[in-house]
Structures are given as structure tokens and as C-alpha cells.
Design a protein that fits this description.
CATH class of the largest domain: Alpha Beta
Helix content: 40-55%
Strand content: 5-15%
Number of domains: 3
CATH topology of the largest domain: Wheat Germ Agglutinin (Isolectin 2), domain 1
Oligomer: single chain
Structural class: mainly alpha
Number of strands: 2
Largest sheet: 2 strands, antiparallel
Amino acid sequence: MLMKCDSCQEKATVFYTQVADGKLKKFVLCEACAQAKGITDPEGLLMAEELLGAAPPKPEAAGVFPFESQDKCKGCGFTLEDFRKVGRLGCPDCYRAFSGEISQRLPSMHKGLSHTGYIPEGLVKQQALRYELSNLTTQLESAVSEENYEEAAKIRDRMEELEKGEEAVTS
């Protein structure tokens, strides 16, 4: 399914999510509209008034991080001040560069300190089907090698049923 830009209805390639007033807002934009709205520019990321029609509340810089740090990230040159302004880090190396400040804030920002992720429901079913088919293949080979053809036929029939189910899940 082709996603269309919220602004011009061209093919969307940029997906932007913003939390404003405690509500999650999602936008899909084409590359040209994203550049025009400043999404691809770190200085223009706080552009909610243009998309939402109202300016987001400004985060208070004082007290966010008690340590003033003039250190820059060795990976991208991002500073702690850049993080305060943009609301995100510049690269994975920033996590190490600013680890002291970030680790103090994470418990209040997230439920846990590690992300375990999830597996989409369709993928779970697909993996379970493949696992069962693999087991049945092993059982089928064993039944054939033991010349237990009646059992082999039952296993073959079960495998055919599962393969039909797998086609339904993947389509």
C-alpha cells in the first residue's frame, strides 16, 4: 500500500511522530515537503506549530541536566545543548558521550532501562508453522527410513494442511 504525503499527496518517504499536549501525532510526508518543513534539519525539528497549528510547550532547559557540559560527541559533534534544543541525540555515540546525564533521566522517561521489543502477531504464527513443519519433516524422514508408510502418509497429510495454512498467513 502506497502512503501519500499529508501535504501534497505525493509518495510519502518521511514518517514523523510528535508528542504534543500528551497526544501522539503522526505525519507522513514526501521528501520535498519534509525538507520544506525542516524535518530533515535538526534546527527545524520543533516545528509543531506549522503541522499542528499551535506551538508546543517549550521545555525548560534549566534543571533538565544539572551538569553543564561543553564536551562534544566524538561521533557527530553533537553537544548537550544540541540535545536540549532538538530533543534527540545525534548518533549512537552520543549515548556514551552523555551517559551520565542520560542515565539519570531515563528512569523517569521510560518504564524500563532496556527495550525488549515485540514480534508482530503474523510473524509469530508464521514462525510457529515453520517450526512445526520442520519437526514434521524430521518425523517423516524417520518414518520413511523405518518403512512405516502409514505413519509417513499421516505426517505428509498434516504437512500439506500446515502448508496451506502458511500460505494463508503469509498472504
